[in-house]
Specification:
Elements: E1 3-6, E2 10-14, E3 19-23, E4 29-30, H1 36-47, H2 55-64, E5 96-98, E6 105-111, H3 123-131, E7 148-158, E8 161-175, E9 182-196, H4 212-220, H5 224-227, E10 240-242, E11 249-251, H6 253-262, H7 307-315
């Protein structure tokens, strides 16, 4: 049984005895049982040795066939990838929570560069962070001259669980939506993490068709102890981490980085008085002017265009 492969530039017909290639602008794939018309048409073209269009193709295949030998073939065994050294992520270890029953509030400080977000850091973001009162503390050893990221966390301890509720404060550099110049965007983002001493098992089916009150009653029944954890149900499964009792610390850097990523927007503005750019020549109107004439077209309202004037005439 043969098959035909249609790519953007080639049509390949492969049978048990021979393989031929014909140039054609198709992008389809037929395998197994395909229609007889295109198969017979292409098959007849390939079998016809009198066609000059196929001669350069056959010659090219014959000349290059020597390169497709076992000696020139590279075999990749993907099972051997275990030997590749894992260099880790650049943000690992930036923010680490250490277990301490006597502490209910924590303050962390890091930088955008330490979180692997150096592209969002610039002199503009550093200046705005300084105006907002954000400073890089002395505890930050890596990238002490970067844009500061301050994290405040409140710790709530429950039975075999710990909940971390925090806020992230920093400044990122984005492109101005009006002129395209760098713009500083302040970030105040809330987050919640649930650290469980038991392995996290995400349910296969999540019922979101009921209200919170009805859902908890039907799922938990009348158990008052479970009802105390109703607030934790709003935490996403990706924000629930396994933190066994024998472990003393856990890295939450990735979640902090993800929260900063979610604050990237296309609505950043460098200044509320930004004039933007000329839509015709692209000149930045904040720094210079252009001679492009602005054509102001009157808004037409169709058959109701003069209705306002007619009503005013009748009322007068």
């Amino acid at each position: 049984m043969g098959y035909i492969v249609f790519s953007h530039s080639l049509v390949t017909l492969s049978t048990s005895s021979s393989t031929s290639i014909l140039a054609a602008p198709f992008s389809f794939l037929f395998s197994g049982q395909f229609s007889s018309f295109p198969f017979l048409l292409i098959h007849s073209l390939l079998r016809s040795k009198s066609l000059n269009v196929l001669k350069p193709v056959r010659d090219s295949i014959n000349q290059n066939s020597e390169y497709f030998t076992e000696e020139n073939t590279i075999t990749i065994d993907w099972e051997d990838q275990e030997d590749i050294e894992d260099i880790g992520s650049p943000w690992e270890g930036a923010v680490i929570y250490r277990r301490n029953p006597s502490i209910t509030h924590l303050e962390y400080c890091t930088t955008l560069e330490r979180l692997g977000l150096g592209k969002l850091s610039s002199d503009i973001s550093k200046t705005r962070a300084s105006v907002m009162g954000l400073r890089v503390t002395r505890a930050v050893k890596d990238y002490p001259n970067g844009t500061p990221v301050q994290i405040s966390i409140d710790v709530t301890r429950k039975k075999q669980k710990m909940r971390l509720d925090g806020i992230i404060k920093t400044v990122i550099t984005l492109g101005c939506n009006r002129c395209g110049e760098p713009a500083a965007e302040g970030i105040f983002s809330n987050f919640s993490l649930l650290l469980s001493e038991e392995p996290i098992e995400e349910p296969e089916i999540i019922d979101i068709g009921a209200t919170f009150e009805e859902g908890f009653k039907s799922f938990y029944g009348s158990n008052p102890e479970v009802g105390e954890d109703d607030d934790d149900a709003s935490i996403d499964w990706d924000d629930r981490l396994y933190f066994p009792p024998e472990e003393k610390e856990i890295d939450i850097s990735k979640h902090i980085r993800d929260m900063v990523h979610l604050e990237i927007t296309i609505n950043a503005v460098c200044d509320s008085r930004c004039k933007g750019i000329c839509l015709k020549c692209g000149t930045n109107l904040n720094t210079s002017s252009c001679n492009c004439s602005e054509e102001v077209k009157e808004k037409g309202y169709g058959p109701l265009g003069n209705l306002g004037k007619q009503i005013q005439q009748k009322l007068s």
